[in-house]
Specification:
CATH superfamily of the largest domain: TolB, C-terminal domain
Structural class: mainly beta
Largest sheet: 6 strands, mixed
Distance between the termini: 133 Å
Radius of gyration: 43 Å
CATH class of the largest domain: Mainly Beta
């Protein structure tokens, strides 16, 4: 009876083993080796966990991504590789006695199944928009299927040059862009990233900015040691025309021509340049003979012969030159060796007005000459003190100028009480326009307004270091000075 029970127990054990879910032979062993790499670039993955089902040893990959499981019972296994940040992967492997099987795992990053963001949809400005301001708000919409954090990049190109404006790491769906150019067509596109998938690009929209305003008033302002030229509209908005990195001054607008001439430092010399009224198309006129004389910032020049030539000084000589830089010709030389500092030309009378002075700015003469360089009239002579600011009326019958009535002369060329005067050529008389000028100030750089009912001028303290401000005043001599521009000098009004 006992023997019979023993046989029954053995049979029961055999049945249990044969009914096990994982069939692994117990008759021998083999080895599993392999390597775990990242999918795509095959970079070895260190410390990846490798396990089997049915269970054997749990091992981790070395620096080369390799692993070994020794003495696994013969049979079929499901081998799993796992690493944080990657999707787990299973490979089937069958072990036979005394043999080694090799398994390679290529793991995808966890985000491999992540969907890309939706294509950004541009909304404002609408495509082909025109008359856009120089500061514009770009608006678009964007979304992501998994609600991932999105990061936008915006690029702007234009039809004027190869400049590309790029704005990155934008988390909102709006962007304000300022400092755009006038009358320029811009093309803009939005790129979006979820930092998982490839960039997604929007379509391209375009818009065109407003045209440059037809400003009539120009002036100079010193910024960080350089003179910079501006224009200003009737509402008082200022427009910078020349770079902060160049020294440019003395703007002179051509009559009935959309061109502005000015002086600029170039390699230690001063030359005449022209440009469009928006600051573009800059061209150098003079080259072999520069503009030169006493006090470079006091030097002046003028358009001549229906804006086809310029007339300018070089020490004691006066030249004219075609606007394209050709045909330079000397037309006058002072009789006493004084320097020519300022000049104005009148189309109606075909006469030039000159202001001359010695090497320190004094021994002043203001006189007119004809086309042959012959002196016609003396406006100011045999006086002490500084003078300047020449400007003819349209018909050439009057000449505006400034003169320091204190008569003071000093080594700093400091003017103490400079007034504006209108000289009537027919009667050889001068009228003082500065009777209501604030005490301790100077009126300088006077110019007639286009309708000649007003004058535009600089008023500044006579200390020689205070800020210059530009004013307008009517010619009826009442106290009616109106501030036009703070911190400005060398005005021109056409």
């Amino acid at each position: 009876m006992k023997v019979f029970l023993k046989h029954i127990s053995l049979i029961f054990i055999v049945i249990l083993v044969s009914c096990s879910e994982d069939k692994v032979s117990v008759t021998g062993t083999g080895n599993i080796t392999g390597k775990v790499v990242s999918k795509g670039d095959n970079t070895p993955l260190e410390n990846a966990k490798v396990s089997t089902s049915p269970s054997t040893s749990i091992v981790f990959t070395d620096a080369g991504g390799k692993f070994t499981i020794n003495n696994a019972a013969t049979g079929t296994y499901s081998v799993q590789a796992q690493k944080e940040g990657y999707l787990s992967k299973f490979e089937s492997s069958t072990i036979t006695e005394d043999n080694t099987v090799n398994v390679i795992f290529e793991l995808d990053i966890e985000t491999a199944n992540n969907n890309a963001p939706s294509t950004p949809i541009l909304s404002l400005p609408v495509n082909d928009a025109v008359n856009q301001a120089l500061t514009v708000e770009l608006v678009w919409t964007g979304s992501d299927p998994e609600n991932d954090d999105l990061f936008y990049e915006v690029k702007l190109l234009n039809n004027q040059n190869s400049e590309v404006l790029s704005f990155t790491d934008i988390v909102n769906t709006t962007l304000t862009v300022s400092g755009l150019e006038f009358n320029t067509k811009y093309f803009w596109q939005v790129f979006v990233s979820d930092n998982i998938n490839e960039l997604v690009l929007s379509e391209t929209f375009n818009f065109t900015t407003i045209e440059f305003p037809n400003n009539r008033t120009f002036f100079t302002r010193k910024i960080n040691g350089n003179n910079v030229i501006f224009s200003i509209d009737e509402e008082g908005s200022e427009y910078q025309l020349t770079s902060l990195n160049t020294n440019s001054w003395r703007p002179r607008k051509a009559s009935n021509l959309d061109k502005l001439a000015f002086l600029r430092s170039n390699g230690g010399q001063t030359h005449i340049y022209t440009m469009d009224l928006n600051g573009s198309n800059v061209s150098q006129v003079t080259s072999s003979i520069p503009v030169n004389g006493f006090n470079l910032e006091a030097l002046d020049f003028e358009w001549k012969n229906n804006n086809t030539k310029f007339v300018f000084p070089n020490f004691d000589k006066l030249y004219h030159i075609n606007v394209n830089g050709s045909g330079i010709t000397q037309i006058h030389q002072t009789l006493n060796g004084n320097f020519i500092t300022e000049v104005d030309w009148n189309q109606s009378t075909q006469r030039l007005a000159l202001k001359t002075n010695n090497a320190v700015g004094y021994n002043v003469q203001i006189y007119t000459i004809n086309n042959s360089g012959v002196i016609q009239d003396y406006v100011l002579q045999s006086v002490s003190g500084a003078a300047g600011g020449l400007d003819y009326t349209f018909d050439g019958s009057k000449l505006l100028y400034t003169y320091d009535v204190s008569g003071n002369e000093n080594s700093q060329y400091r003017q103490l009480n400079t007034h504006m005067f209108v000289y009537t050529i027919a009667s050889s008389t001068s009228q003082d326009l500065s009777t209501s000028k604030p005490a301790g100030t100077n009126d300088l750089d006077a110019r007639f307004s286009p309708n000649e009912a007003d004058v535009i001028f600089v008023n500044t303290s006579n200390d020689g270091i205070s800020q210059n401000n530009i004013y307008k005043m009517t010619l009826d001599l009442d106290e009616n000075r109106t501030l036009l521009i703070s911190n400005g000098k060398m005005p021109d009004w056409k």
